[in-house]
Design goal:
This protein is mostly helical. Helices cover 66% and strands 3% of the residues. The protein is built from 24 helices and five strands. It has helices spanning 6-13, 18-39, 41-44, 58-62, 70-74, 90-94, 102-129, 132-149, 155-181, 189-213, 217-223, 227-238, 243-246, 251-265, 280-285, 290-293, 296-321, 330-355, 357-376, 390-416, 422-437, 443-449, 453-469, 484-488; strands spanning 2-4, 51-53, 81-83, 274-275, 511-512. The strands form two sheets. It has a three-stranded mixed beta sheet. α9 packs antiparallel against α21 and α17 (296-321) runs antiparallel to α23. The radius of gyration is 24 Å and the shape is globular.
């Protein structure tokens, strides 16, 4: 009986055939688009609208000011002013003004509190019980909690439910992405990742579109989550468990999944074949904490990835929540960065495989550092929303490049962590990333006190993340490691655009059993 390596079977089935395209599309719609919608939901639904004074004391209250601002509103009684827009949002419905404005940031912070808890806990569980059914459950729960939030009439209940949403989307991220990436062959992982990560920018743009043209914030919330029930049904009925995961102890089921893939991709597998497997005892005993004790290199590589994720998230969300400083229209801000992020992700497809993941990561941190470094010395401007400035461009560009880093590290970490701990390893990285994002909603408050400190902090973090990136190996065209020992073997793999890439695991010749 012929014994095949899993990578050889994937090459025969097609590294990016009909089945893999279907799985990537479902992931893009179900997880990436949803993440783009939910991450900025409170932020975009809490834009303070224009208001006008309706009191006889209007001149007295504003005689020393050129226009009505938030300070003026706070010294007026509720019957002395009114909102000029008919569109409802969280601010207008729950009166999140003056002394209650901190509740806006609190809503985002509670969401990002649940996110890391879900990613870490569910990531560990996923390496025990599998990816497919957990991904299905959290698709459904994310949609359900978001729809319930749309009908709540109390802001405290709303933000508590937002923390549960964060837990659900965190669990969804670390189960669905490994499921998808484990279906893709080495030559197509970059393409699959680029397609999927563009969904995040699409989600941001769609959120801006719906928030701009739908008057009710409740309708916006429901419209941004209804698709999840459809995707959950499709995943439950049409996408099986990852064959790489099943190889740990369910060889027969892994073969059945490969035959399903063959049917989708219209290729034929041998009637009888075996799949070369890693040592079963090793697979059963490897856990995420083994990464820190196996060898010095696996420990350093794991810590380096954690810091890179931390920096990428801090940069990404700090600039995202602070973009009102450089442009007046928050909907245009978010839509512009979402579109630019899509364009950068598409452009990156042509260079990631050519120069490698490692160099793309390092050069991206150089761009991000340069962007905030320049902004550090540019004057603060208070422009009308129809105006634009060089500082606006630099912030949007830096934010878009940070979005690219955020999408790249998903692929990069999935290729570094072995199958035995891939979900929990990603969960650990997502955990530290979301911990850093907890402080991002309060960046606006810090910025009001000292406009330059944000850019200085981000610049220093970019330098340290650049240095941490030197530790990581190159993974382009590399088979996914199956065990921590194979991850440790990657320590000498530092690919350069000027040198030939070397394989991580030498291809073994096909064995014939009589």
């Amino acid at each position: 009986m012929t014994v095949y390596d899993i990578e050889d079977l994937y090459s025969h089935l097609g590294v990016f055939g009909n089945f893999q395209i279907f799985v990537v599309v479902m992931y893009t719609i179900g997880e990436r688009v949803t993440a783009g919608l939910l991450d900025f939901q409170v932020h975009i639904l809490s834009v303070i609208p224009h208001w006008s004074c309706v009191s006889d004391r209007c001149y007295e209250l504003t005689q020393n000011q050129t226009f009505f601002n938030k300070t003026t509103l706070c010294i007026m009684d509720f019957d002395e002013w009114e909102w000029r827009e008919t569109r409802s949002n969280l601010v207008t419905e729950f009166n999140l003004i003056c002394g209650d404005t901190y509740k806006i940031s609190l809503g985002s912070t509670l969401f990002f509190t649940g996110y890391p808890v879900g990613s870490l806990l569910i990531g560990i569980i996923s390496d025990y019980v599998g990816r497919k059914w957990l991904a299905t459950v959290f698709l459904f729960l994310t949609g359900l909690t978001n729809c319930i939030a749309a009908v709540l009439t109390n802001y405290t209940s709303f933000i508590i439910l937002r923390s549960i949403e964060g837990f659900c989307i965190g669990g969804l991220t670390v189960t669905f992405y490994p499921l998808v990436i484990e279906y893709i062959g080495a030559g197509a992982r970059n393409l699959a990742n680029v397609v999927a990560q563009c969904g995040y920018g699409l989600g941001m743009a769609f959120l801006c579109f719906t928030a701009s043209y739908i008057d009710s914030w409740r309708a916006v919330v429901i419209s941004t989550s209804a698709h999840l029930f459809f995707v959950a049904l499709i995943v439950a009925t049409n996408i099986p468990e990852s064959p790489r995961y099943l190889l740990k102890n369910k060889d027969k089921e892994a073969k059945q999944v490969l035959k399903i893939m063959a049917s989708w991709n219209k290729v034929k597998l041998p009637d009888e074949f075996e799949i070369r497997q890693p040592d079963e005892n090793t697979c059963q005993h490897e856990r995420v904490w083994t990464l820190f004790s196996y060898s010095r290199y696996t420990c350093m590589a794991t810590l380096a990835q954690m810091f890179i994720w931390f920096t990428a998230a801090l940069y990404f969300f700090a600039l995202s929540f602070n973009m009102n400083d450089v442009m007046g229209n928050p909907y245009l801000n978010l839509a512009a960065t979402g579109v630019m992020e899509i364009l950068i992700n598409v452009a990156s497809y042509f260079v990631i495989d050519r120069i490698g993941r490692r160099w793309c990561l390092l050069l991206s941190f150089v761009c991000c550092g340069a962007s905030v470094g320049v902004c550090r010395f540019l004057p603060h401007s208070n422009l009308h929303y129809t105006q634009f400035s060089f500082k606006s461009f630099m912030v949007i560009m830096g934010r878009a490049v940070a979005g690219f880093i955020y999408s790249l590290v998903y692929l990069y970490s999935a290729e570094i962590f072995p199958t035995t701990v891939r979900s929990s390893g990603l969960g650990l990285c997502v955990f530290v990333a979301q911990v850093s994002s907890l402080i991002a909603p309060f960046v606006i408050v810090i910025h009001n006190d000292n406009a330059d400190i944000i850019y200085t902090i981000l610049f220093l973090f970019c330098i340290m993340a650049f240095l941490a990136g030197w530790i990581l190996p190159e993974t382009v065209d590399c088979p996914l490691p199956r065990t921590i020992a194979e991850m440790d073997a990657m320590k000498h793999r530092h690919y350069s655009v000027f040198t030939e890439n070397t394989p991580l695991i030498e291809n073994e010749q096909t064995e014939q059993n009589s």
